[in-house]
Amino acid sequence: MSEKTKTIMLCCAAGMSTSMLVTRMQKAASEKGIDAKIFACPAAEVDEKLEQENINSILLGPQVRYLLDNIKKKVADKPIKVDVIDMQAYGMMNGAKVLEQGLKLSN
């Protein structure tokens, strides 16, 4: 991966509900020629992923929005932006819109 690669982590309760969204985001990135690494992880693995990955932005599934402040504190000393996935885009599994949200955060 190049330095231009954007790494977006999606975080949800168990990592399952966001996996389909990740697939759609990857497809949207590919169609737009965007170099992005997108993956999902359960909330319980956030600390581990922060150690292993060079993450640019973290998007939380609406079901774990209560973790927003906690995760923002964990990354306060890192150049990582955190937000909650737009609920409508999440519900519609709109990969392109969620990709756009993650890229805006990471710029």
TrEMBL record:
Task: State the PROSITE patterns in the record.
Answer: PTS_EIIB_TYPE_3
- Residue numbers of Phosphocysteine PTMs: 12
A Pfam family assignment? PTS_IIB
Query: What are the protein's GO molecular function terms?
Result: kinase activity; protein-N(PI)-phosphohistidine-sugar phosphotransferase activity
- What keywords would UniProt list here? Kinase, Phosphoprotein, Phosphotransferase system, Sugar transport, Transferase, Transport
InterPro entries, alphabetized = PTS_EIIB-like_sf, PTS_EIIB_2/3, PTS_EIIB_3, PTS_sugar-specific_EIIB
Q: List this protein's GO terms for biological process.
A: phosphoenolpyruvate-dependent sugar phosphotransferase system
Annotated ranges, domain PTS EIIB type-3 = 5-107
PANTHER family, per the entry: PTS SYSTEM N,N'-DIACETYLCHITOBIOSE-SPECIFIC EIIB COMPONENT
Q: What is this protein called?
A: PTS system, lactose cellobiose-specific IIB subunit
To which species is this protein native?
Liquorilactobacillus aquaticus DSM 21051
Recite the lineage of the species.
Bacteria, Bacillati, Bacillota, Bacilli, Lactobacillales
